[in-house]
Structures are given as structure tokens and as C-alpha cells.
Amino acid sequence: MPEKSFDINFFNKLKKPLQKNISLRDYSNFRIGGKADYFFEATTVDELKKAILLARQYSLPYYLIGGGYNILFDDDGYRGLIIRNKAQGVGTRRREEIEALSGTSLRQVLQFLTENGLAGLEFLAGIPGTIGGAVSSNAGAFDKSIGHFLSEAILLDKKGEEIQVRKDYFSFSYRQSQLTEKQAVLLKAVFKVQEGDKKKVQESIEKNLKIRKGKHPSEEVACAGSFFKNPVLSDGKKVSAGFLLDQAGAKDLKVGRAAVYRGHANFIINLDRASAKDVLLLAQELKERVREKFSVELEEEVIFLPAASSMP
Ligand SMILES: Cc1cc2nc3c(=O)[nH]c(=O)nc-3n(C[C@H](O)[C@H](O)[C@H](O)COP(=O)(O)OP(=O)(O)OC[C@H]3O[C@@H](n4cnc5c(N)ncnc54)[C@H](O)[C@@H]3O)c2cc1C
User: Fold this and answer.
1) Is position 312 within any domain?
2) By the number of CB atoms within 10 A of the CB, which of 132, 197, 199, 233 ranks highest?
3) pTM summary value
4) Whose Cα sits closest to atom 36 in ligand 1?
């Protein structure tokens, strides 16, 4: 239970001031969002833990982000504290096992694997964001997901305690883990890898990047990746949301300054200065079209963060 109501002075314990009125569009790849009342960038695990514990203790609504590649912020910003996780570091734990702090980018992890000739995670090449964001959403590509390779992790749990857990704690499924439901924050994760050949790891990464280049918008495009999850039909088959959207005529749709990406119907892009409202209205239209044509209900993969909300 929170003990005291919020007073910014309590956050002096962080030794680094909370920033005020920070524009969230600079922290989301969608480049959309109003101002957050408070903002804190944690560069160590200790800072990350302290910021979360203080927010919980003083009833300040908070939300943790990694790279902001899967998030749509509200036009009204955020009434509370956005904590950005930049606690980074990756290394070998023991033979064929690596460990990474949750704010480490997937790109940094892949660079480490290439330099050390460690194989197995090359499918992550080109997925932007941090280890924390990737584990939280069980990110993946080419029919592989990060959760499959995670062996154990250190979390800050609901009670504010640091705990060590094994893979089964997460109940990983398609683009899902139980982290949010369990009100836990990932601090560090350990992954199984295999000893391999540096050149082969590099080649495999480059091959994956090349395949993605043909299908995904380039890095300069403001978006948050696939907007919807691929739905599972009543016969148990998984179908591409992009295919259904394409068939439903999505590629010509636009609301305000938000549009469907011509190269892939499951990407909503910000043409320039789109509002979150534009994106949400367009998403609603896309869902309706697919519902009408295929009787399939699409589920959002991108997370919309309303201004008045908090981490569970
Ligand atoms: C061009 C593009 C291509 C993409 N391609 C793919 C793809 O191929 N496959 C795929 O799976 N995704 C893809 N994505 C989506 C995105 O890259 C992933 O979801 C990624 O894992 C997001 O990481 P992030 O650090 O940016 O998370 P954020 O967007 O910052 O946060 C996402 C969620 O993770 C939670 N979170 C973040 N850190 C922690 C933590 N330490 N502990 C607990 N929860 C945490 C946040 O609270 C939030 O709920 C793509 C996105 C873009 C823009």
C-alpha cells in the first residue's frame, strides 16, 4: 500500500532530479505524444529499482519504457512519471550462456554475440528496442521468440523484492509474457546460446536484416512495428494480419496524418505530426474492415498508454 501522497522532494533520494514536462514524442518511435509530468532516465539497475520503488511508495502513477518502439503515447502526455530504462550491459555468464541488463538494446546484444562467435539469437537482428521490452512482449521473428532462449532472470517483483526466476515464471506465448500481469519488472536476463563461428553469426545476422529490409519500413519511418498480432483462426491456424488487412483494402487508408504503410498493411505510420487520436481512429477502422470481411477480431500488438494510467 502506498504510504504517503506524492511530493517531488521525496525523489531527492534518486540523487538525480526528476525532469519535468518532458515531451514524450522524443521517446517513442511513433514520434507522437504530449508531455509527461515527470521523467527519469535510469542508467543503472539501482536507479531503476529506486525510481520504481519510490513511485510505488508515494502513489505516483508511473510507467516503465525501454526504447519506446512498441508504444503509442497519448496526445495528452502522461500524468505521472515515465521511467526510461538505460541500464545496459551484456556479458558471458558461463559456457553457452549470456546475461544482459534489461536496458541493453538487442543491437548491443547481437554485437556482443558476433564479437564472441555465439549463435542462436540472430533472428532478433533488426528488431529495435531493449531486452526488457523484448522479454515483456516475447518479441520474435522468423517463427522464433526470445522467451524460448531465456533460461533465468532477475526481477523486481510486485512486493518490491529482487527475485530470481526461471523461464516457466513468464508463461511465454505468442507476443506475450506474464511480466505485466505479475506486476514485475525485468532487471536482468540470462539466455542460452551456442558456441559458433564469428563469420557465420555475422552472415546469419546480415541475411536476416536483408530479408526484413524488403518487408519492413526503414528506420526513419515513424511507427511502432506491426500494429496488430497475427490472429489465430477458429481452425487453429495462424494467419498474417497484414494479409487480412491488405485484402480488406487497408493500404489506401489514412486518418489525419496517420496512414497505412504501403509496403505492409500491418504497419501504421506517422506521416508527420500525426496525433495519437489519428492512429487510434485508423486502427479502429482497420479492425472494423477485417471484422466485416473475415469475421476476425484483430488484437493490438502496439501498446497505447492513456495519459491517466499506471503500471498495474
Ligand atoms: C520498425 C519496427 C519493427 C519491429 N519489428 C518487430 C519484430 O519483428 N518482432 C517483434 O516482436 N517486435 C517488433 N517490433 C516491436 C518492438 O521492437 C518490440 O516490441 C520491442 O521488444 C520493444 O522494445 P522496447 O524496449 O522499445 O519496449 P517499449 O516499447 O519501451 O515497451 C514495451 C513494453 O515493454 C515493457 N517493458 C519495457 N522494459 C521492461 C522491463 N525491464 N520490465 C518489464 N516490462 C518492461 C513496457 O512497460 C511496455 O509495456 C518492431 C518495431 C518497429 C518500430
Assistant:
1) no
2) 132
3) 0.95
4) 133
